[in-house]
Each structure stands twice: as C-alpha cells, then as structure tokens.
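REQUEST FORM: STRUCTURE PREDICTION
Request ID: SP-0412
Submitted by: Lab K.M.
Chain count: 1
Length (residues): 115
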Amino acid sequence: MLVIKVQGLPQVPEDQLRGLYLQIVISLLYVRELNLKDGREVTCLFPANMMFCGLGEEIIVEVILCEKLKCPEGVCQKLASTIGRVVRAEFPQMFVRCLVHPVNPKQGFWSSHPG
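STATUS: Completed
RESULT:
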C-alpha cells in the first residue's frame, strides 16, 4: 500500500489532477521492486491548500509506504525521485520535494479493508 500526498499545488482543473494521478501510478509500475500490479494499491491525495500566500512556489510530496512493500534504501530513493520527477514535469516552474516515509504496520495500523 502506498499513500501519496501532493501538497502545495496551485489551483488547477480536476482533469489536470486526474492526469497527474495517472502519471504517478504509471511511473510506479516501472519501479519493479515494489511489485505493484495496478493502481489499486496506490492512494493519491491532493489536499486543498488553506493559505494562498506562497501557493504555487513549492510542492511537497509525501509517500507513506507500508513495510509490506519492502523499500530498501536504494528503492526508497528511486521511489522519491520517480514521483518527484513526474510532479516536476507537470509543474516545471515549481520547486518540488519528495519524502518517503516507510511505515511499520506493527507500530499502529488499521484498515476496514480485508488484507
């Protein structure tokens, strides 16, 4: 399971967000070490920005990675640069940072979905 939060985006039409979502999912399928078969294991969130000051200057992408997907150091770096480059390609005028947070479900995790 991957949860991706893209924060700090300028206001854009929903179809542009859908396109960005698809580009992110497609790029993740090429990170073979994750063994993703499709986008069902990926949740992409684009939270609304409550403050307009500085909006559109910097984008922060956070990737929350369930330990089940195994992300050794090199793979985490590959994941960060892969997603970061996709977002940067869509918004080339902005500064983009991508952070990967591996999460151990034993440290606290709950899901209503079986599995």
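NOTES: The domain at 2-105 is CATH 3.30.429.10 (Macrophage Migration Inhibitory Factor).
Reviewed by: T.R.
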